[in-house]
Specification:
Helix content is about 35%, strand content about 20%. The protein is an alpha/beta fold. Helix 8 packs antiparallel against helix 9 and helix 9 runs antiparallel to helix 10.
Length: about 260
Amino acid sequence: MTHCTAVVLAGSRPVVDPFATAYGTDLKALIPVGGAPMVRRPVEALLASSAVSSIRVLAQQPDRIAEALTADERISVEASGQTIASTLEAMCGDASVQWPVLVTTADHALLTPGMIADFLAKAEGAEVAIGVVSSDALLTRLPQTKRTWLKFRGGAFSGANLFLLGGPQVRSALEVWRTSEQNRKKAWRMLFTLGFSGFLGAVLRLRTLQQTLNSVGEKLNLNIRAVELSDPLAAVDVDKPEDKELAEKVLSERGTLPT
């Protein structure tokens, strides 16, 4: 894949975040994970990827996030919009954006260049690609983990917080994302937003994940692909203390502590 722009979503909740407060900050992206601000971990993985030409970190308080990152000319920290989808929609009209755009989140503390390479290779040619990990793979690696699973014929999946947007034509998909953004943890509402037939097929498990996305893609006139990541740890994001402990354990096993 040609060089892409990476976007790291490092926004914070509009209300007090008890998870962040428990670790001495008001911004989740600045929670220390293994001795470094959490947001620094995915950014450094992106810097180490040969496929990423520039990194745009989006946050409501960009100055504070910028202070937590390693100085590098490839990184820009910018003010985000009110929602994730509206922020990405705005990029569709930005002539300075180098497509495709790889999107991840500040809480993807276990992201590695290998995961990025795996995702981009499998996403080649898609207009929209969504990274997922199967429940079988993740539960084999982490039997006690609790995730939000989307269940389809052939298996259940958890998101991997990796998305590929192929070009400005993905605006239609971002509009759907925006309408379902408030229900990201309520899988059935998200599916219903994408069309009744796709919703019904998923609920009754009559369709595979890719068949469901094909149906959505036909509606939006886009090639949408589910990309199953080889490394199940791609599904681990740091949303609660147990996730933080797990991430630090994995980072220690990798020999990446201290930073």
